[in-house]
Amino acid sequence: MLELRHLETLTAIREGGSLVEAADRLHVTQSALSHQLRELESRLGLQLLNRRTRPVRFTTAGLRILALADEVLPQMRSTERELKRLAAGQTGRLHLAIECHSCFQWLMPTLDVFRGQWPEVEMDLSAGFSFAPLPALLRGDLDLVITSDPIAMEAVRYVPLFRYELVLAVARDSTLAAARFVRPQQLAEETLITYPVERERLDVFTAFLDPALVEPAAQRTAELTPMMIQLVASGRGVAALPNWALTEYLSQKLIATCRLGEEGVWRTLYAAVRVEEEEAAYIQDFLATAREHCFRDLSGIRRPR
């Protein structure tokens, strides 16, 4: 009576908290998901959800099926990965570089899981802060680059991971802390704290300040996100950072944030791979693992368009 799709459906509802979010995760319509759920409840003669609560709550029967899903689905995924490794010849190489300093927050846990799933794949990680990683990808020195600045290249495919909002971190006692959003002209009076990379690789310039022909009063750099946050918290400048990278500091009430412009500045994070390598089983599994971790652990991100 129970099928794998039923286990996946209930798991998606638990993770999403609603039928709408679960349908989005499963790439089906909400009506199709509701029909599948009603059909299963009819088969079992049991109600699995209390649909009147937000988020939805599972009945005892629903929780029992979820417990089964937690046992079966990981085993299924493990077996699928094992089969993919066999089909891929059990060997491969994944040399990565990242152009996003704050990406370490989600990338390191992803790599830890991936190593356990693909122990035969040779791995290496570089920070693309002091060199241009995309030419290295074309040369074959790298196999995957995490970037938010895709450059059209015939031999490179950009796989979207997630969308995020770039927000302005300010001191809690700053006059900007109470603002819902800031205009570019307001940063003409501020010290802008950035990572030590070229201006054309900083979204706060390319997507916000440069189009308005605005320059900050001053600019200083810091290599690590915690260092930037300490500078911001002590009133020595402001910093434009991904919304998900600031969740911890906001919960600790170290800083405040406001949007860049009334509509906000949204960017997409991509994984760049060579076209001929895109379908490699271990690369596909790395991308799936990365998305799984990001949408489970990061706040404020959206699915790519």
From TrEMBL:
Subcellular location: Cytoplasm
Keyword Amino-acid biosynthesis: yes
Domain HTH lysR-type: 2-59
Alphabetized UniProt keyword annotations: Activator, Amino-acid biosynthesis, Cytoplasm, DNA-binding, Methionine biosynthesis, Repressor, Transcription, Transcription regulation
Main localization (coarse): cytoplasm
Keyword Amino-acid biosynthesis: yes
Domain of life: Bacteria
Family: Belongs to the LysR transcriptional regulatory family.
PANTHER family: HTH-TYPE TRANSCRIPTIONAL REGULATOR, HTH-TYPE TRANSCRIPTIONAL REGULATOR METR
Protein name: HTH-type transcriptional regulator MetR
